[in-house]
Amino acid sequence: MEEQVAAYVAKEQKEPLPPPPSEVGLTGVLRKNLFATPFDSALTVVLGLFSIWAAWQLIQWALVTAVFVGANREACLAGEGQAVGACWAFVHAKLGQFMYGLFPLGERWRVDLVIVLLVALALPLAIPSVPQKRLNALLLMVAFPFVALVLLTGGQFNIGGGWIAFLFALAAFASASFAAGNVTASHKLLRAATWLAALAMVLLLVSNIVWSGQMTLLVFRFSVLSMLAFLTALASIAASLVAAWSGEDGRALALRTLAPPLLVLALVVLLAGDFGLSPVATNRWGGLLVTLVVALTGIAASLPLGILLALGRRSHLPAVRLFSIIFIEFWRGVPLITVLFMSAFMIPLFLPEGVSFNQLLRALIGVALFSAAYMAEVVRGGLQAIPKGQYEGAQALGLGYWQMMRLVVMPQAIKLVIPGIVNTFIGLFKDTSLVYIIGLADLLGTVRRGFSDPNWITPTTAATGLVFAAFVYWLFCFGMSRYSIYTERRLHTGHNR
Amino acid sequence: MTADTQSIREPRVALMRDPRTRGLIIQIVMIIAILAFAAWLINNTVRNLAQANIASGLGFLSTRAGFDIGQVPIDYTSNSSYGRALLVGITNTIIVAGSGIVLATIVGFIVGIGRLSRNYLVRGLSTIYVEVFRNVPPLLVILFWYFGVLSVLPLPRQAIDLPFGAFLSNRGLQTPAMRFDPEAVLALIAFFVGIAGAVVLSRMNRQRQMRTGEQRPTLLPSIGLILGLPLVVFALTGFPFVFEYPEATRFNLVGGLQVKPEFLALFLALSFYTASFIAEIVRAGILAVSWGQTEAASALGLTRRQSLRLVIVPQAFRVIIPPLTSQYLNLTKNSSLGLAVGYPELVAVGSTVLNQTGQSVEVVAIWMVVYLGLSIAVAAFMNWFNARMALIER
Fold first, then answer.
1. CB contact, 8 Å: A467 with chain B?
2. Which of A118, A322, A386, B138 has its CA 20 to 30 A from that of B68?
């Protein structure tokens, strides 16, 4: 028997057999991907026919039978026996409204400028290889909102003296802490500066309770006490400056110490100054502009608030934890519409007499609080995923709570939950469409109003306008989700082998 | 060497540097600040309400509502009370949320599995579906169905004929209604008997398999029991029902079961929107089961279908259920968007009540309580389901 087995021995390496013809080439690919089993084949045929039919209908509607030019509804009305598809003439005629709302025609360059600034600041931040990330982020997060605010509203805000004194008192604290960075600076003066700043705060508090006489400085109205607070804050800053100057390396430090008051001064000038921009009331804003304002404010407010709430929910202090849990669960349990209704109907009730917020601001508050709760849960997920050893390691290094969070825990946690954060942003962006229900004219709201316009009522106007709006929303949301996937891959360090 | 009797002494720490004291101080300050803020708000509210001459309290619930509601699943006329109107709203919310959840789950699972199909066409279409619906606001989808599709359908006179005697017009969908005779109760009883029988059968088969390892078919006999038994009883009692077909009169369609366009728009939009999220959850859940499980299943000789049913799906379910719960909650909360097309759910009815009475605090409180209650109910059910499905470890 064994001889028989050994009868055939290959002397050289044999060529491998070619793969069966059903596995290679076009037929192989088709067979594998479309016609693997009889059921698969049936599915392919049915779905294929459906796709062709759907695509054909779509092309018919959007291009072949669509109306591209026209001045009013006459253009988009069907004649005898002919079908009319999309009424793009309507979108074309109303495009300005869809983008800017009722923003005055001559002032629309301001909106364009804000958008250009936004793109110019956000794009370099989004591209990893562009340098100067810190400066870029500072400009986008700190300077841009105020510039945009002034450009969009026209500025010339009526700032009370109390607020100015408050800002300068804050600047005084910042200056004192900068000056304290130099060990050789005079301690006596520094202590005096800190106490003066604290005194300014106390004076401010008192000025809100006790009524004192009115006085005016430039265009700002001060009460006597808030004026005193303002002067005290200035004195504190001066003390810090002298303290910084007296130490080694005095000139550079004095410059740094001077930065906070200068920033506050710039802010006050920016907000109160007259740049020749005519004021535009927020009820004239509309379209994509309102959508972007609500979405971006919501995003900007929800991330820090959400992080704070997430930290609060994991805090060891029972009162802080309980408050955070109640806050988060309350907002998460109710629909956004009720929140918006609440902000529209109840905020006016909550405020003292004479104080009123405009509608946009009320909606912004509602959206920000609502999305902060969702953000908090996303961030908490990230915090929970950080192993305990990281916390212990940070503590063993002697880091304090905030240092530990800022330097060790948060960078890891945020990286883990980037998809969740972007999903929350996308959800927020889509949810901004709800503000139209409480009467704001966002993109969806203007489209909704547009197709009720008697000049444009036709059977296809509504569908056309909504498809256009859907495309704009889709573009933003899809873009965000793609960017999130890209970032996720880029930050996916430490797991690649 | 001088003995230092006090060598180990607690180091003196400044008050703010001691973690325990500091924590206590922070909490006390926070509680005082929150209480002060709340007191300020309440104070302002009370004063504003007094100024607007609005009596607070739930007394308004028993006064006459005086407005009509488009869809009334429970008895309601304009003479009913505000409380009754809100109850109608709650019922409508539950109806649209419940039916939406069912359709969204079915579509979501089909599309989610389709995203993983080997068939290129199925995969592509599923991907397009998910990416389109996920990135568009649900409110827009609702408006699209309502204003873009259902409103421009022909008038009832020229209603589109659908199969089985149903009509589609701008007044909604009109289908034949089944009007049952009293004997039909027997069939209903048979239906429940069938369910009980199926449960008993599956228990018995399971015990048998545990004892002897022999597998008996369970699925088909169960379906036969649940559907077949009532059908047999139905036939034996002589089909005790009549179809009531909608009929075209001069201006309208009369009779049958009418599904209003508001409901249809909300129901379709919410289901298809939420289905795109459920599809992604299902896909992620199936992908989360490691490939080794599939390989091990085929190594054991299970067919593809068996390995799906016995190995992959049970494990995937554990990943799927928690996010699925939150999608169900989202759908329930999104049903409040019915307000935009006039579907009379809780928020729409509530806003009418709010506008008529000015009782904003109370109405908003009712909204919050109802939605929180619904959320807790759905979450409790899903948690129970989750606990049943969860991996039982030591």
1. yes
2. B138
